[in-house]
Amino acid sequence: MFRRKHAPDFDSNDAEQREAKINELKSALGPLSARGEKYCSEACLKRYLEARNWNVAKARKMLEESLKWRAAYRPEDIRWPDVSAEGETGKMYRASFRDREGRTVVVMKPTKQNTSSHEGQIRFLVYTLENAILHLPEAQEKMVWLIDFTGWTMAHASPIKTNRETANILQNHYPERLAIGFLYNPPKVFETFFRVIKVFLDPKTIEKVNFVYQKDVESMKVMYKYFDPEVLPVEFGGKNNVAYNHEEYSESMMKDDIKTANFWADDAKTDHANSAINGTMVPEVTPQPSLLAAKAS
User: Fold this and answer.
1) CB neighbour burial string for 145-174, b if at least 16 within 10 angstroms, e if fewer
2) What are the DSSP calls for 106-169, one per residue?
3) pLDDT of residue 32 exceeding 90
4) How far is CA 109 from CA 106, 112, 176, 254, 278, in A?
5) How confident is the model at residue 190, as a pLDDT?
6) 224 burial class (0-12, 13-18, 19+ CB within 10 angstroms)?
7) Both ends of the chain: CA-CA distance in Å?
């Protein structure tokens, strides 16, 4: 995701050149575990190449680090009961509405922070990201974030350690997944805090962040460019009275857990039965009836 000069004579708008880079990266990776193969789809390889400005060597290094992280952290094996306590207040959830392009929307409300567990918050973030990806339409690769800072104070600020790891995971293991992010009604004090956490963000990510204020007509126009006011929640300046309901959301997440488990089940069994590639074992997931194939990578 960092800005670098393209390789000589490479044109990122040329489909044949892009395809050649994707194939080169695929070959450079070598043999992968079953889950690794499923994760490293053509769309996935393209995202990592874009994140490293189509430099195959750098994209390979980045992707290999992600594969190691996924094998160790096992994001696809996190289930709602593991993180449901973090979601009780509705501080972060996948919205029931989409933006004008049909993309998945993740809502965050920092003032509703309800735990102090660093590991719990990171696992909840990863679970939510995986779930948002699960619900991306076929033609979409990126999601939208709506972050409500109404009433935020420094007392709500996450520890630097958590912010640092959050930035690391988002940028290094979920590259090119953010389409645009809206920071809604951030107070003046947040501007100082944001200057601190910006050091963990690359310039391309920062460009996707928009400060929006309810009383600023021009900034709200930017919001409405991406969202129909009829579907946008009232708390974000829209007309939709939709509200987070933890019980209903939990039921939805439990159903999604079945989809996720079914999608990865065969690969988990294969990786469990064979010696892991690169010395990493991927644990088995019990297969369950599928309701919908997940968009995994």
Assistant:
1) bbbbbeebeeebbbeeebbebbbebbbbbb
2) EEE-GGG-----HHHHHHHHHHHHHHHHHT--TT---EEEEEE-TT--GGGPPPHHHHHHHHHH
3) yes
4) 10, 6, 23, 22, 40
5) 85
6) middle
7) 17
